[in-house]
Specification:
With about 475 residues, the protein is of the alpha/beta class. Helix content is about 40%, strand content about 20%. The chain has an eight-stranded mixed beta sheet, sandwiched between helices. An eight-stranded mixed beta sheet has the order 9-15-12-11-10-13-14-16, sandwiched between helices. The N and C termini lie far apart (about 85 Å).
Length: about 475
C-alpha cells in the first residue's frame, strides 16, 4: 500500500540527508558537495565527475543518500550503482533500501515504497535489485565487468571502479575497466541518461583520466558553470585534501587549508604526504601521475653533513609568475668538485611583501653573500626590496630568456648528477619535495614547474660547461 502524500515541500538534498541520517556532520565542504549532487539529482547536470580524498564521505553522499533522494523525486527513475566488486555494489544497494524502509523517508517521500517481506507480489527485492512499488523505477547494483543485459538505465553512479593501487597500476585492469565502461555502461544509456563518476584517484590513466583526455570537460568552479555547460560536457570537480589550487566559489579555501580539518588535520595530511608524495598527490589531491613519466622521481642524492671544501655559497630566486605560482628561493653551497648542496629553501605562494622577508631571514641565517634574482615578472622589484633588507649582500638581478621547458628537460640529467639534498628535505620542505619528485616529463601535464625551474637555474649558474651563457646579466644593485 502506498503512503499518503504530505503537503510539505520537497526538501533540499542536505535537508533530506539530515532527516534520514541525523548523525552526519556537515562541514562547508560537505554542503558544497551535496549542493552539487542536488543539481545532478534535479537533472541540471547530466555528466558529473567528482574526485574526493579517502575517508571524506564521498560514498555516503553519492552512492547511498543520492539514489534514495532521486527515487523520491522520481519513482520511475532507473538507477544503476557500479563499483569495483559486486559485493561492494550490493552493500550500497542494501544501504539505500534501508533508507527507503525508514519512517523518516516515508514522511518525506510517501509514494516511493519497496517490497516488504513477500508483499506485494510480483515485485523484485534482492541485494542487487529492488523495484519501486507502483512505478517503473528500480535500483540495480553491479560490479565492474558485470552484466546489465536488457536493462535500460536512466542514471549511472560509478563509485571507485578500482579496488586499490595494485589494480589501478595494472594496464590490464585499466583496459578491462575501460572496455566494460564503453561496452556495458554506455550501451545501456539513452538520450536523457545521466552519469556520475565519484572516485578517489589512483592513476593518471584511470577511467577519469581517460575521459578527461577523450571527451569535452569543464572545470566546475561555481554553480553558474552548471548552466553554461554544454549537453555533452563533463563537469569536473576535484576536492583537494590540502588546498593547493586557486580559491573558487565552490572551494574558497586558502592555500594549505585542510578539506575536513576536524577529521583529517593539516598535520595528519602532511605526514601522509611525506610518506609517499606521489600517492598523496593522486589519492588526496586528485592529481595522479605515473612514476614512469617522472623527470626526476625519487632519484635525488642526499647528504648528512656539508663537506669542508666549500668554495662558494649563493642563492637563486625565481619570483612567482602569477597568483597560482610559487616563489622559489634556493640557498646552496658548491664544493671543489662542482657538487651543489641545497642548504635551505623558501617555497611559497604568499604575497611578495611576505616572501621577501622570508628569503631575507633565510639568507641572514645562512650568512649568504650572493643572491641571483630573475628579473622576469616582478623579480626586479623583489631584488630591490631584498637589497634594502640586506645591504651587505650582493644582489644581482638578470633576465631569463631561455625557453622554460627546454631548459628544464635538457638539464634534468645534470640536476640529478650535481645536486645534493639534505637527508630530511622531505620533512623540511614537503611541497618543494613533492613538486620535484612528481614532476612529469610531459610538460603540459604539470600544474607547477616553479621548483624544477629554479633548480635548473641553480645548475645553469654553477655548471658553466653544461648551461653555457643562457642568461643575460643586467646589473648589480
Amino acid at each position: 500500500m502506498q503512503r499518503m502524500k504530505m503537503d510539505n515541500p520537497t526538501p533540499s538534498f542536505i535537508e533530506f540527508a539530515e532527516r534520514v541520517y541525523p548523525f552526519l556532520e556537515f562541514t562547508p565542504f560537505h554542503r558544497t558537495y551535496y549542493s552539487v549532487l542536488e543539481a545532478y539529482a534535479e537533472g541540471r547536470i547530466k555528466r558529473l565527475i567528482v574526485s574526493v580524498p579517502p575517508q571524506h564521505g564521498k560514498s555516503v553522499g553519492a552512492t547511498t543518500l543520492l539514489p534514495a533522494y532521486m527515487l523520491g523525486l522520481d519513482p520511475d527513475m532507473r538507477i544503476a550503482i557500479a563499483s569495483y566488486s559486486g559485493t561492494l555494489a550490493s552493500k550500497f544497494n542494501r544501504r539505500v533500501q534501508r533508507i527507503l524502509d525508514s519512517k523518516e523517508y516515508g514522511e518525506i517521500f510517501p509514494n516511493t515504497t519497496i517490497k516488504q517481506g513477500t508483499k506485494p507480489l510480483g515485485y523484485i527485492r534482492t541485494s542487487d535489485e529492488v523495484e519501486i512499488v507502483g512505478y517503473k523505477g528500480e535500483l540495480i547494483s553491479v560490479g565492474r565487468e558485470g552484466s546489465l543485459t536488457g536493462n535500460r538505465v536512466d542514471c549511472f553512479i560509478l563509485d571507485d571502479l578500482y579496488k586499490d593501487a595494485m589494480e589501478a597500476q595494472s594496464p590490464v585492469v585499466r583496459e578491462n575497466c575501460w572496455e566494460w565502461y564503453t561496452s556495458v555502461v554506455r550501451t545501456r544509456m539513452h538520450n536523457a541518461s545521466r552519469e556520475l563518476i565519484v572516485f578517489t584517484r589512483w592513476h593518471e590513466e584511470d577511467l577519469i583520466g581517460t575521459l578527461l583526455r577523450n571527451e569535452p570537460c569543464r572545470e566546475l568552479r561555481s554553480m553558474a558553470d552548471i548552466d553554461e555547460a554544454g549537453s555533452d560536457e563533463w563537469l569536473v570537480l576535484n576536492f583537494e585534501a590540502l588546498k593547493s589550487s586557486a580559491p573558487t566559489e565552490l572551494d574558497p579555501r586558502q592555500e594549505g587549508e585542510a578539506l575536513w580539518p576536524e577529521q583529517q588535520s593539516v598535520e595528519l595530511l602532511q605526514s601522509k604526504r611525506r610518506l609517499d608524495p606521489a600517492r598523496f598527490e593522486a589519492m588526496y589531491q586528485g592529481h595522479p601521475s605515473s612514476k614512469e613519466g617522472f623527470l626526476y622521481g625519487d632519484n635525488f642524492r642526499e647528504y648528512e653533513l656539508l663537506p669542508r671544501d666549500i668554495v662558494t655559497s649563493a642563492c637563486y630566486t625565481d619570483t612567482a609568475d602569477a597568483g597560482d605560482d610559487y616563489l622559489c628561493s634556493i640557498a646552496y653551497s658548491v664544493d671543489t668538485d662542482g657538487i651543489i648542496y641545497v642548504t635551505d629553501v623558501v617555497y611559497s605562494r604568499e604575497p611578495m611583501e611576505h616572501t621577501e622577508r622570508l628569503v631575507a631571514a633565510m639568507l641572514s641565517e645562512a650568512h649568504t653573500r650572493k643572491v641571483y634574482v630573475e628579473s622576469n615578472n616582478g623579480g626586479r622589484g623583489f631584488a630591490r626590496s631584498l637589497q634594502r633588507l640586506l645591504p651587505k649582500v650582493k644582489v644581482e638581478w638578470f633576465h631569463q630568456s631561455g625557453n622554460k621547458e627546454a631548459r628544464i628537460l635538457s638539464n634534468s640529467a645534470t640536476v640529478l648528477h650535481t645536486i645534493r639534498m639534505p637527508k630530511d628535505w622531505h620533512l623540511r620542505w614537503p611541497e618543494f619535495y613533492a613538486h620535484l619528485t612528481t614532476y612529469r616529463r610531459l610538460f603540459r601535464a604539470n600544474r607547477h614547474d616553479d621548483a624544477p625551474d629554479a633548480l635548473t637555474g641553480v645548475v645553469e649558474r654553477e655548471v658553466r660547461d653544461v648551461a653555457g651563457n643562457r642568461w643575460q646579466k643586467v646589473r648589480f644593485l
